[in-house]
Design a protein that fits this description.
It is a single chain. The two termini are 29 Å apart. Strand 20 and strand 21 form a beta hairpin. The protein has a five-stranded antiparallel sheet with strand order 10-31-30-29-28, with no helix packed on it. The chain has 427 residues and is mostly beta strands.
Length: 427
């Protein structure tokens, strides 16, 4: 018999393969051959059967048959080899078996939130310009913005949230969270604005459906998502005043819930209030499990304790402290050392394989990394383990992961300060 020390080899182009040694039983081979030919740059030693080298071209996953021969006969042994393309210079590492494609580069800072339309168009908003942009289904960035909002810009102000209607295919409704000034004393505020987008990628009929949301120079939250219930959720930070997060007279430091028209749902936990949960410092991202509908959010701590929470109506995330008698939200994960969580999503597509089903993907601003959390439990709230998935080269501060999104083909889309990337499982 013939087997190899590493029977399944996953390499990146130009990466060196540690010599893969054959193990034989029943005799000593005098020669080795392989079919089909190994990927360019890899060699089989015809005498020892050792496979080694550095591949110089990508190669799809293929099973190669090595045959060991001596005077008494021969026996075959399989070796499966995959060679993924080299990483772009902007990535330092990536989980094996995946590769990166650049969707758009040189974008105006920052493509802060992304959303896919059913027809494959990718919408994103630019934080500081106020532009809503679109990349068509063929991957072409349309030069003319869908619409432009005149925004005020500060540390964490601007065009900060983006969502498409669950029925976008028929109604073309696009929503943004914007920091604006309406004039006069106290004119700065955050708003939710709705546009109607046509087939020519032009937005019209801007309508403010939620006005006068709290605003601060920083810690404005701003994510915007539709839940499986068809309701619209948005996050507000504490606006740099931690007392706001527990103040009954404030909407800061919360997740708020509205109808698609901007009204307050009758099912909210406090009658007449958009409040869904409170006690957040600055939640940059919320996500819904695509099957269970469970709501999760990040919360950025001050100099310690970044968190991921599982949210249900009326719960309290405990910033700055949990009041007596309050019902605490379930904390899924705690990072004592600040990572500044950014994008957050549940992966339920089939493209990555069963191992990745119901995994969390989490972006970290501080370390310019993407993490993969293996989840379990009825609501997928239990972290079994966490693995590094990608590390970006942060030279110049331009490769911080900002938003994460699953594409229609099951790829993972990542926006950074000036680019959008697509991460795919290699065939």
């Amino acid at each position: 018999s013939l087997v190899y020390t590493t029977p399944t080899v996953v390499l990146r182009q130009d990466g060196a393969l540690a010599p893969d040694l054959p193990i034989t039983t029943g005799g000593t081979p005098t020669s080795y051959t392989v079919t089909p030919s190994l990927p360019t740059g890899l060699t089989l030693d015809p005498t020892t059967g050792v496979i080694s080298g550095s591949p110089t071209v990508p190669a799809f996953t293929t099973t190669y048959t090595v045959t060991a021969t001596n005077a008494d006969g021969s026996t075959p042994g399989p070796v499966t080899i995959q060679v993924t393309p080299p990483l772009p210079a902007t990535f330092l590492s990536l989980e094996s078996g995946f590769h990166v494609e650049t969707v758009a580069a040189g974008l105006s800072p920052l493509p802060i939130k992304m959303a896919f339309a059913p027809d494959g168009r990718l919408f994103f908003n630019e934080l500081t310009t106020g532009n809503i942009r679109v990349i068509d289904a063929l991957g072409t960035l349309i030069p003319t913005p869908v619409a432009t909002v005149t925004v005020v810009t500060g540390v964490e102000q601007g065009l900060i949230g983006l969502a498409l209607s669950p029925t976008f295919a028929s109604d073309g409704l696009l929503y943004v969270r914007a920091s604006v000034n309406v004039g006069g004393p106290g004119g700065d505020r955050n708003q939710i604005i709705r546009y109607t987008v046509d087939a020519n990628n032009l937005g019209s009929n801007p309508t403010v459906i939620v006005d006068n949301l709290p605003i601060g120079a920083g810690r404005n939250g701003g994510d915007l998502k539709f839940g499986l219930d068809g309701l619209l959720y948005t996050t507000t930070g504490d606006c740099q005043n931690q007392a706001n997060a527990q103040d009954d007279l404030s909407l800061a430091g919360r997740v708020l819930r509205y109808t698609a028209a901007g009204a307050i749902p009758a099912t909210n936990p406090i009658a007449g209030s958009p409040e869904f949960v409170r006690g957040l410092r600055n939640s940059f991202a919320v996500c819904f499990h695509p099957v269970t509908g469970g709501l999760f959010c990040t919360d950025n701590g001050p100099t310690v304790d970044d968190e991921i929470h599982y949210l249900t109506a009326g719960r309290n995330c405990g910033w700055p402290t949990l009041p007596m008698g309050a019902l605490a939200a379930y904390r899924v994960e705690l990072y004592p050392e600040v990572i500044a969580p950014t994008g957050l999503l549940f992966y339920t597509a089939a493209a990555f394989g069963a191992e990745y089903a119901n995994n969390f993907f989490l972006g970290g601003y501080v370390h310019s990394d993407i993490r993969r959390l293996h989840m379990s439990g009825a609501a997928y709230t239990d972290v079994d383990y966490e693995l590094p998935f990608a590390l970006l080269d942060d030279t110049g501060g331009l490769n911080k992961p900002i938003d994460l999104l699953v594409g229609p083909e099951g790829a993972l889309y990542v926006s950074t300060v000036n680019s959008i990337y697509r991460i795919k499982k290699y065939p």
